[in-house]
Design goal:
The structure is a homotetramer. Chain A is an all-alpha fold. Chain A has two domains: 137 residues, Four Helix Bundle (Hemerythrin (Met), subunit A); 94 residues, Helix Hairpins (Orthogonal Bundle). Chain A is built from twelve helices and no strands. In chain A, helix 2 runs antiparallel to helix 3, helix 3 packs across helix 5 and helix 9 packs across helix 10. The termini of chain A are far apart. Chains in contact: A-B, A-C, A-D, B-C, B-D, C-D. Chains A and C meet through loops of A and loops of C.
């Protein structure tokens, strides 16, 4: 399961080749490396998950321990290789992914000295964040950009919407706190606000439910309100996605004079410089 | 935490300056004042919330009491300042925000004489309403207007939709009241209607659930119905948001040469005849 | 609360005038009659609801009984008036609304002889159906038509969607019946299908929940699936509403030659007869 | 309930005629056969469902057994007929529908020898899959294709979305596992992830709910997040459905006189120059 990367290359260029393999995904070796790291991340995250299940830890604790250390060593080697091959090591170490890479391996080493650091070991789940770097490899990135563009351009509207939801939720929670008795679960305003969020978002756990007739009437209004306003973010994002796809659909023709794009399909003249298209 | 606003200005113009600071948000002092009030509202609302939590009130009751009074005094000074600086004080006092401002401070003073007025003190949460006045300050107002425009123009359609939902819910609730036994929670028609709303809006608390085979069949139909008709308000709002953004996008400018419209906002030349716009 | 309709009119035309009042909503008297019937329906439905609540029936049983009989007499008089004034009484009696009108008053009279006919008395809630006739009066009818048009034109697509949902739900329910033990509530395939519907529609009562690890994994997949496919009916209805509003927006200009409408905004010639617009 | 198909035809062409009846839906006999098989599938699936209900099996076990065998014989005859009439029998046997057809009848025969094969008998529910073959018959296929087109073209975007949801869910589940105590149900990371999925998809069973103040705060954020991101797949599919219906609507016909496109489907004359199309 361990690869001896670069054991057969001349010492002169090994740094460049290693850099190419680790950081680029264009060469065959780089692609293979990315796929290998991708599965290493997935498996090691699954190991962290399984370790948290009591009966699995008791039965297969040793196996999980061994697998965990294999991946820790792989990730440590990768971390060292990244530091060695990068031009500015310090910049990498303190970059977002540099810190994530360190947090992925550190807990295992600390665990050697402090055996009771259970919650610390969970930090290893941050390895999952590393998957974003590998995902660049895959073809989905274009779709992901289209999606995040749609979200980004509707960000302000969604913020306004969420702020309104928060205001509604605080007022509704307070009303229910006054109406309902503490026996039915509405023991404080924060708890009542928690109930209002659970209801308005149509999650509806049922851990706190109104019991009185008035409380159930107000709750009904909250639900119908939530049902109606869920339409708002959907409408916003729909509009953005549609607009995004419309822009994408429009002409890819570039003006010969000013080289700018974004012309309508029926345009005969460039709308920026007046040149005939 | 308390500001002595306007202690260093000449008595001649202090009224106008104070009015500018309190009511406008264009000057630097006005902006600062708005931000200060914004946070004062947020913190005082959090204090009201925390006060409703039993164990926090018992442990930090005195601290909350002091903080509460600090904010009550701030809001009282603000209220007096608003009455003094406004042209028609009575109109302000009986305006929506005037009443909200009064309700924000009154409960604290009444509490001095009637110590058992717990539910009265909760009225202070209405301070949250005051945040709408301060929000004018922020850049989101344009987005908020776009959203509320979309909602306003689809208001009639949403009302028709909600009325249909109410009719469906009354009929479904009555059917379930006949089908299910009172033991499973369907003790009366209003309660069954409450169940129908909980189910149709996909909240699904689970405090009342059908037990019989027939009841579960009808409930399944209700759920699938709710699943299908949730599409209606979403469709309405989506259509409005899209239309709103389309109207905003289309330029009403007509070409002087060929008189045709439909140019993009950044177009400098007519896309049909090449004439400068 | 009782009106002596038409007691001051000559016997010659009383039939026509009564017909106008009852069936039309154009005259002042007709409008008033519709509003009166509207509120009579609402109040009598609320009475039926309240009667189903145990403690209200025990405390205010006599009041409810009296109010109920007043409305029954009003509706009986209305029913007789409708039969008398309509041209073809038999056609009315066996029409949809004729049967609903009869079912609205019959249970009360039957209740005189059979005092234990509780479930029969609930039929009176069908009075609610009569509200649709009165609703013609209100301005919302245009909006309601736009909505029902959107639903009608997407009806086929929604049927296909619901059939697919039913197929998915039967297969998922069966899978869960095999995976989960009867102890966790999955006692039979129909019950498991009920669970699948509760989950897929995101209602989530929690009366039946998977307990085993495998069951929870499958349930998670069902939820994410439901989360993804809820987008389908929304998308369909959104598209219909948008298309509907687009058609409405387009030119209201009618061709002078062939009088047909529906021309695009930039059309210079009628697309049906070629006449210049 | 059993049809003697083809008992009155000459032995020369019976193979061709049978093939036509079984595989085609154009002739009257073929249509009748498809409808017969459609209802045979529906009823036999209902029988399988009812058999899983304890008290129905105990009361009507014998009836279900007889009905089941009638359908098994019908499906066996159909299976044999299909093998006989098809040109390449082996290709059919190992095709998707060939295997489904075999799995629909096999369990009943195996049940003759192994009486305890309860879970095996459930495989018969796969008969439901056969309904897809029959569905070709109905008029809905066009709508179904439009829907599946919209889903297919947004497939990549939905995959990206679901992958993001999975990432969010793993991270949120881990956070809740650290925050909440095992007593409230968060016993392991996989279980916490299950909770995160239940919450994010707004299903909200309530079998695992946060109890601590911090846990409820995080849960509230998860719910509002889920409320906001449910808009994304809806937006994607809406955009696709709208685009699909737009493409269908626009006519690709160009005017012979002015060569411009964009005419409505029912246009007889060019809307730009009035030339007949």
């Amino acid at each position: 399961m361990k690869e001896n990367q670069g054991s057969d290359i001349t010492p002169v260029h090994w740094k460049e080749r290693l850099h190419e393999i680790i950081f680029e995904a264009d060469t065959k070796a780089g692609k293979r490396f990315d796929i290998f790291i991708f599965w290493a991340i997935i498996i090691s995250v699954v190991v962290v998950m399984l370790e948290s299940v009591d009966h699995i830890r008791q039965e297969h604790g040793k196996l999980l321990f061994v697998v965990e250390w294999i991946f820790t060593i792989i990730f440590t080697l990768e971390y060292i290789a990244r530091i060695l091959t990068v031009n500015r090591p310090l910049k990498y170490v303190f970059s977002f992914f540099g810190i994530v890479d360190l947090l992925s391996i550190l807990p295992a080493f600390i665990g050697l000295y402090h055996t009771q650091s259970a919650s610390l070991r969970i930090i290893r789940i941050l390895r999952l964040m590393r998957i974003f770097r590998v995902l660049k490899l895959f073809a989905f990135s274009k779709q992901a950009r289209a999606l995040s563009n749609a979200l980004a351009s509707s960000w302000q509207k969604i913020t306004v919407f969420l702020m309104s939801v928060l205001l509604i939720v605080v007022i509704l929670g307070t009303i229910m706190y006054i109406i309902e008795t503490p026996e039915s679960g509405f023991t404080s305003i924060p708890r009542s606000i928690y109930w209002a969020i659970v209801t308005l978002t149509t999650v509806g756990y049922g851990d706190i439910t109104p019991v009185s007739a008035l409380g159930q009437t107000v709750a009904s209004l909250v639900m119908i309100l939530g049902y109606a306003i869920i339409a708002v973010p959907t409408g916003i994002v729909s509009a953005e996605v549609i607009r995004g796809s419309e822009i994408k659909r429009t002409n890819t023709q570039a003006c010969k004079s000013c080289s700018r794009e974004g012309h309508a399909d029926d345009a005969k003249f460039c709308r920026f410089c007046g040149e005939m298209l």
